[in-house]
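Exercise 4. Each item below gives a protein and its sequence. For each, produce the structure-token representation.

Item: Alcohol dehydrogenase, iron-dependent ([Ruminococcus] lactaris ATCC 29176).
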Amino acid sequence: MTMNNFIFENSTKVFFGKGCVKEYLCCLTKAYGDTVMLCYGGGSIKKNGIYDEVTNILEAAGKTVVEFSGIMANPTYAKVLEGAKLAKKNDVSLLLGIGGGSVMDCCKAISIAARYDGDVWEDFWKRPGVFDFEPLPLGVIVTVAGTGSECNGGAVITNEELKIKTGRDYPQCNPKFALLDPTYTYSVPKKQMVSGGFDILSHIMEIYFSEPNEDNVSDDISEVLMRSAIRNLRAAIQNPQDYTARSNLMWAATMAENRVIKLGKRMDFECHQMEHQLGAYTNCNHGEGLAVLHPVYYRHIYKYGLPKFKRFATEVMGVSAEAKTDEEIALAGIEALEDFIVEIGLPVSLQDLGVNENTDLKEIADSCALMPGSYKKMTHEEILGIFKECY
Ligand code: NZQ
Ligand code: ZN
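Answer:
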């Protein structure tokens, strides 16, 4: 199979590097009216000084600041509606999200809901590909490397009532600007850093392990990115203030999700579907859930994509091919991935993840979307089997 046809555009302007917020934020906000809604999570930005830095800049720029805090991990649709109400009430002209994927995704969803009077769930979230609408402008300041949400229109929102965690990528929701200062990630706790680091790896693997298998630019870039993510995650664990490691992780996260390596590929993302529904039912951590699922899923499908799994083993995980059959090489690659997961302290079972034994895994499996781009299209029964194996 050859590369898929594609059209490429990415409208987010990225400012990268130490000091970029101080240097550019004031100037960037000038284009967007007087009232900025400052959106953030549980308060880490107040402890590490980012909040003070940003509010001082906004004050000096003469902005009226409306605060919207408490955006939780796995942001809920209810929180989106709360944010939209606040934005409408204050006639906000720019949303400024400071945080990780949860804050950025919630902001994107708010950016639609704040300019829409109908039922946002019905009219946007349930209808992939149908979007002709100009949302409220959004700018983001990234504080943890992982999702790559800063450079795409994707947002993943949990509808708690319906028990659905779903993602959509609308290009109009791309942030207008993204400020990426690697030093802002120094204070991320190790648990969250490795979770975000594995999410980066997962995004690349979900793209790499799909057709085409024949020579293509995406697979070549992906191998370099995966090796870089592994190397720099190890370095950042050794020294959380390693600027080079933090820079590489931050940029690898963006590169994995700015659509570049997706071009021409069919893409899998079945593991993401499984993790999202696990999250909808158990509120588990995204990167941790992926770490539990990936090795088990890959042992399930490797035979259907053997050449790529073999290539992954030798080119990414450093497995020696000597005296091994193709299958043995592929399996050694998956084992090396699992060893890396253990090495960096991520969970390897649903029990480690805190999933209760009374959890109805069948109901969760049945709620997972079945992705067409996988080397082997899953059935709900197979997903249930994978969940049980993960337990
Ligand atoms: O809430 P605060 O107090 O700020 O603490 C956060 C949060 O507890 C903390 N944190 C962030 N930056 C920090 C920091 N702590 C100290 N110092 C800092 N500099 O980190 C914790 C987790 O943050 P969160 O935003 O939840 O993590 P992540 O970036 O992994 O985002 C996860 C969400 O993004 C979705 C996931 O499903 C999940 O809902 N995804 C979004 C994607 C997208 N839009 O493209 C793609 C992904 O596949 C993913 O599904
Ligand atoms: Zn992810």
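Check: The domain at 190-390 is CATH 1.20.1090.10 (Dehydroquinate synthase-like, alpha domain).
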